[in-house]
Amino acid sequence: MKKEVDRNMTKRNGKQRLTLFMKPAIVKHAKAQAVIEELSLTALVERSLMKYLPKVTMIKRG
Hints:
The chain is mostly helical. The protein contains two helices and no strands.
């Protein structure tokens, strides 16, 4: 039996592909900042989300 592979995951780095729709001005700003910080756009967005998101997210049901 073959193991099912998530098509959105890359084998090389274990990251998931994501498509977002954003205002062009925000994308331009983020790309420029990534160049200044010598990061990839992915690394900049990842770092920004990690700083923004809480360590733990609790979802209450019902």
